[in-house]
Amino acid sequence: MSAVSQPLRDASPLPTEASFPLSAPAPTTPEPIPATTLSSPVVLDVRDLKTYFFTYDGVVLALDGVSFKVRRGETLGLVGETGCGKSVTAFSVTRLIPDPPGRVISGKVLFRGIDLLWGLDAEAKIKINPKTGRAKVRRSFRRIKAGLERMSAVRGRGISMIFQEPTQAMNPVFSVADQISEALILHQGTHLVDEMMSATPDAPEVLPAMEALVDVTRAGGDPDTARRAAAKVAEAVHLPSFGTQSFYLVRDSELSSEDMVRRLQRGLRRTYLSRMERRYLRYRRKRMVIEDELHDLYLSEMREGRVDRRQRRILRGRRTRLRLGGFYYGVWGIRGRIQRPLRDEAFWRTVGRLEEVSIANPVQVAKGYPHELSGGMLQRVMITMALSVEPTILIADEPTTALDVTIQAQILELMRELKTRIGTAILLITHDLAVIAEVADRVCVMYAGQIVETARARDLYTHPLHPYTQGLLASIPNLERPDKKLSSIPGSVPDLIHPPEGCRFHPRCPYAMPVCKEVRPPTTVEGAEHTVACHLYKGTVAVE
């Protein structure tokens, strides 16, 4: 990789009122990249992704050739102004673009080597009228349904997403616990059922552990001591969620010590499973195993590029026979009783997850409904749902926008802990460059549906190359120079129905040259892990 290139000497600024100071950095020797970062496997590889929206006014070129990579255990920041295509990128990766009017047109999204866009070209045929610019799209809904069914194997445990608007992402008629529990049972159901079946409520050490918890609570000990005592109760029962339940059963209780112990013992009754309840749990586990096998089959099909119709028929036949055999469990009056242990277990696990995002009264919040929560509280619930399944990749679309500074720090620390503990890769979309500087390992700068610069976070902040990146950084207040006047980038993001020819930033760029108006700049390598798409630089053309 070459050192940072100087801008061309004949670069002549456009006559513009641009006030932000643009200056090309001097050539520097980049800092060495940690070996652990370079050696980490790539879990998400996006190549030349194009997403268009077909409207009555014309075709909106929302994404036009976006490429980036995310490694295991890495946080990649995606920054840019509103309307640059950051959220569209996230929805395109997860195939959540509303169709119509939008469609992913071409490109590759490789998740652990699996092309998530396999079969995309057969889902729709597009014909654009050259006179009006309007498009006619003929969709094959059967193929679209098959593609979305394959994506069910990836969403959740593979790729999880924190949405920017939690009010639109949560169902208003189901409680918070119901919605988080659904994600837990769907993606961690077999592990949850196994722990329920192996609980030991009759163990001799359970009662002494309960008495110790009550003694700590009656003595007015600090909450951390009570938490540790509740964890001992859960360890004795061999059921982690019972520790959370025990803590809230005795917290703020005015009962006597004997009454509190009896209260804990009543709570312990949910861990005693009847013969019918055990049969139902084994039945649910079989269904979960078949769904996992179907998801593995979908992943195999996307990896190999062909549909295994025979294996599909076998697995779907097993699933149908199992559902018919479990018809008795759905009878009204029986269903509620036999499902209660699983429902209670998922509820208390949900309470434990809500504690991790610093919700003050998680039991009450879990019982409530989305419309009863404030925007910040609802955002934390959305974050809980995304983090609860411990995904391979977490796409966070403005996760801290509605939160105050203290909660922002706690959420970012929780995401960092998840990355460290299980190696989750994070794609962080935000306008806040301070958040990017705090948590991101690498940064992609996006403008008008294209990636204009990619670099390690430290290099981007110390040596920004693209004029757009320099303009963004020049608009940040400097605490060391409070008297410095803030700069701004003139104009706004262009209309993507008729984007500018050549470089899309040239109408706002003081360094624009005639070539910028005619030729789209190639992405060139200007340093270690540092690429830029600008005619001011003449490095080696980056290879995708």
Number of strands: 15
Shape, per Cα inertia axes? globular
The strand order across the widest sheet is 8-9-10-3-11-12-14-13-15
What is the name of the CATH superfamily of the domain at 35-156 and 426-541?
P-loop containing nucleotide triphosphate hydrolases
Per CATH, the architecture of the domain at 35-156 and 426-541 is: 3-Layer(aba) Sandwich
Helical fraction equals 40-55%
State the end-to-end CA separation.
15 Å
Beta-strand residue percentage: 15-25%
- Rg calc: 27 Å
Quote the CATH topology of the domain at 35-156 and 426-541. Rossmann fold
Describe the main β-sheet briefly. Answer: 9 strands, mixed
pLDDT below 50 for ≥5 consecutive residues: which ranges? 1-19, 21-36
Q: Count helical runs.
A: 18
Mean pLDDT: 84
Structural class: alpha/beta
CATH class label of the domain at 35-156 and 426-541 = Alpha Beta
What topology does this entry show?
Layout: H1 35-39, E1 42-54, E2 59-71, E3 75-79, H2 86-93, E4 102-111, E5 114-115, E6 124-128, E7 135-139, H3 141-151, E8 159-162, H4 166-169, H5 176-197, H6 206-218, H7 223-237, H8 240-250, H9 257-267, H10 275-304, H11 309-325, H12 335-356, H13 362-367, H14 375-387, E9 393-397, H15 405-422, E10 425-429, H16 433-439, E11 442-447, E12 450-456, H17 457-462, H18 467-474, E13 523-527, E14 530-533, E15 540-541
Parallel strand pairs: 3-10, 3-11, 8-9, 9-10
Antiparallel strand pairs: 1-2, 1-4, 4-5, 6-7, 11-12, 12-14, 13-14, 13-15
